[in-house]
Specification:
This protein starts with a helix and ends in a 9-residue tail after the last helix. It is mainly alpha-helical.
Length: 348
C-alpha cells in the first residue's frame, strides 16, 4: 500500500508539474515587454525569514485547486512538496524576468543608438560638439543599464567603435581623400604611387586562418586555393579571395566586399562562431568573433570609401545573374565554408 501510494503521488506530481509549466508559459506570454511583474504574477511574494506567503500568485491558486481534487490519501504527500516547488519555480521565473528585462534594455539601447548613429551620419563630420553629444548619449544610456562591469566595458567599447565608424563613413562620403589621410596617410605602393583606400584598409588587417588578410591566400602571401579554410569564417575569406581574383572592375571588388560584409554580419548576428565545430576552445571562439568584428568594421569603411570613389552603376549592381544572386543569399545565411563543405571549391 505504501509503495502504491508513493507511486500514485509521483504520477500526480508529474501532472502538477505539467500544469505549473503551462501556467508559467501563459504568464510569460502575457507579461509586458520588459518582464515587469512576471515573477510576482506567478509566485507572489514570500517572507524570506519566516517563509510565510505575503502575496499569493497564480502558483498558489493552481496548487490549492489541484490539492483539493487529489485523492485524500495523496494530499499530504503532495502538500509537502509545495515549498520546494515554489522555490524552484520562483528561481525560474526570476531568471526569466531578468532575461526579459535585459533583452528589453538591449532592444531599446539598439534603437536609441541607431538614432544617434543616424544623427552622426547626417551631421558635419567636423562638428565635434554634435559628435561628442551623440556619442555621450549612447554611453549615458549604457551606464543606466543593469550590466556587470565586464559587459558594460564591452558595450561601451562597441558603441565608441560604432560611433567612430559612422563618423569616418560620413567623412568618406564627403571627402574620401581626407578620410584616407585620417586612416593612416596615403601610403605608397610598390611603384611609388599613392595606395587606394582599399589598400590602406586591407594593409592594416592582420591575417586569419588560411585566407583572412590582405594578400594572405592558402596560408601564405600570394598563395593559391588548394588549402581548405580552417573554419567557417575562414571560408568567407577564401570565397572573397576568389571573387577578387575574378574581379575585372572596381565594381566587381565592391560587390565582393559587400558579399563578405553580409556574411560576416550574419556570422556575428547568429553567433555562428559559438557552434563552429572547428573552434574547440572559448579562447578560439573569442578570437574568431573579435576578428570578425574587426573585419566587418574595416570592410564597411572600405566599401563606403570605394563607393565614394567608384560609384556603382545600376548595370553593375544588377549585372549578376540569378544563380549568382541565389548563391550569395545562401552564403550569407548559412556561411560559405559550411555551404561548400560538400563540393569542391570552384565548382559552385
Amino acid at each position: 500500500m505504501a509503495r502504491q501510494q508513493a507511486f500514485d503521488t509521483e504520477i500526480a506530481a508529474r501532472r502538477l508539474d505539467g500544469e505549473i509549466a503551462r501556467a508559467e508559459a501563459d504568464v510569460a506570454a502575457n507579461a509586458p515587454a520588459d518582464g515587469e511583474g512576471l515573477h510576482h504574477a506567478m509566485y507572489g511574494e514570500v517572507d524570506p525569514h519566516t517563509g510565510r506567503v505575503l502575496l499569493e500568485g497564480r502558483f498558489d491558486t493552481l496548487f490549492d485547486n489541484f490539492l483539493k481534487q487529489a485523492p485524500p490519501e495523496l494530499r499530504a504527500g503532495l502538500a509537502s512538496r509545495k515549498p520546494a516547488l515554489r522555490e524552484a519555480g520562483s528561481v525560474r521565473m526570476a531568471m526569466q524576468q531578468n532575461q526579459r528585462r535585459a533583452q528589453y534594455e538591449q532592444d531599446r539601447l539598439s534603437a536609441a543608438q541607431a538614432e544617434e548613429l543616424d544623427i552622426i551620419a547626417n551631421s558635419d563630420p567636423d562638428d565635434h560638439v554634435a559628435f561628442d553629444a551623440a556619442r555621450y548619449a549612447g554611453l549615458d544610456l549604457i551606464g543606466k543599464m543593469n550590466l556587470d562591469p565586464e559587459s558594460r566595458l564591452q558595450a561601451e567599447a562597441a558603441w565608441r567603435e560604432r560611433a567612430a565608424t559612422a563618423r569616418i563613413e560620413a567623412l568618406i562620403a564627403r571627402d574620401p581623400q581626407r578620410a584616407l589621410e585620417m586612416l593612416g596617410g596615403a601610403g605608397v605602393t610598390r611603384d611609388d604611387q599613392p595606395s587606394s583606400l582599399s589598400d590602406r584598409i586591407n594593409r592594416n588587417m592582420p591575417a586569419y586562418g588560411n585566407y583572412g588578410g590582405r594578400g594572405w591566400t592558402g596560408g601564405t602571401w600570394g598563395g593559391g586555393f588548394g588549402v581548405p579554410p580552417i573554419d567557417i569564417q575562414d571560408g568567407f575569406y577564401k570565397q572573397h579571395d576568389a571573387d577578387y581574383h575574378d574581379a575585372k572592375t572596381p565594381g566587381d571588388t565592391i560587390l565582393a566586399d559587400r558579399k563578405l560584409a553580409a556574411s560576416l554580419k550574419s556570422y556575428l548576428d547568429n553567433e555562428v562562431y559559438a557552434t563552429d565545430p572547428a573552434l574547440k576552445t572559448d579562447e578560439e571562439r573569442r578570437d574568431a568573433s573579435k576578428y570578425a568584428r574587426l573585419a566587418l568594421r574595416a570592410f564597411r569603411i572600405k566599401i563606403a570609401g570605394d563607393v565614394a570613389l567608384h560609384p556603382l552603376s545600376a548595370a553593375e549592381i544588377s549585372g549578376r545573374d540569378e544563380a549568382q544572386r541565389a548563391y550569395d543569399d545562401a552564403q550569407a545565411a548559412v556561411g560559405r565554408a559550411r555551404f561548400e563543405s560538400g563540393m569542391s571549391f570552384g565548382n559552385w
